[in-house]
Amino acid sequence: MPRLGLGLLILYAVALPLTATAGAWKQPAGEGFAATSFTLRNLDSGLQGELSYYRDYGLTPRFDLGFDFNQLDTQSGHALVFLRLPLQQGADTTQIAAGFALGGSHFEGDWQPMYRLTLSAGRSFQTSVGSLWGSLDLILEQRGSAASPIGKLDGSFGLDTGHRFSPLLQIETAFGSDLDFSYAIIPSLRIKLNDLNFLGKQRFSNSDLTIGLEYRRTKTQSLGLKIAMWRRF
Fold first, then answer.
1. What is the distance between the alpha carbons of residues 203 and 92, in angstroms, rounded to a whole number?
2. How far apart are CA 138 and CA 198, in angstroms?
3. pTM (two decimals)
4. Which CATH class for the 2-27+34-232 domain?
5. What residue ranges in 44-129 does DSSP mark as E strands?
6. Are 82 and 70 spatial neighbours (Cβ–Cβ below 8 Å)?
7. How far is CA 204 from the centre of its chain?
8. Closest CA to 46 of 186, 220, 174, 181
9. Distance (Å, whole) CA 40 – CA 58
10. Phi, psi (5° rounding) for residue 8?
11. Higher local confidence (pLDDT), 53 or 75
12. If 0-12 CB within 10 Å is exposed, 13-18 middle and 19+ buried, where does residue 24 land?
């Protein structure tokens, strides 16, 4: 399955000439990106909330340093510090980067060590209606004393129209020998906040708001609302 995922990653990155804010794209040295998101899902058992925070900084021309936090209600979550190494960067080419993350995950407050390996590929292409872009992440996660790691293949695709509103599509998948295949599809609207004034001042420079609907299929199905704030600094 990991070989199949790697093959799909390369195939999509080459076949789809799709600027992104993270993943395959190396952050310029001294610059960074942060995203805070909240998802509210309607489950058979009631409403469920998920909070995520991601921060990525161009530490040097060769490395990015970042932090990834996630909390699913009071049930589970993780906190990771990661390094990203660009393998291939440049204009008019497929962007490729590798990442290693180390930290901990918990289930109902019982924290265990966790690590994550990531291979990312992405591309952008200028069209008559804007910049079309896409990024894929092939992920291998080992959580605590789990018998086997979890594999993930996630994708983000969008069109930067250069105007206030732009479309965005995110797809998340998870699989493993001890895990049923699951996926989520999240179509969203990306709203640029750069020139909006609040109380007479521009308080959202270099920021975007995304609002999306999530369909998630695990052992059960659920619908959710996902709201995220992106900021470049």
1. 34
2. 40
3. 0.86
4. mainly beta
5. 46-58, 64-72, 76-88, 95-107, 110-127
6. no
7. 21
8. 220
9. 31
10. -65, -40
11. 53
12. buried
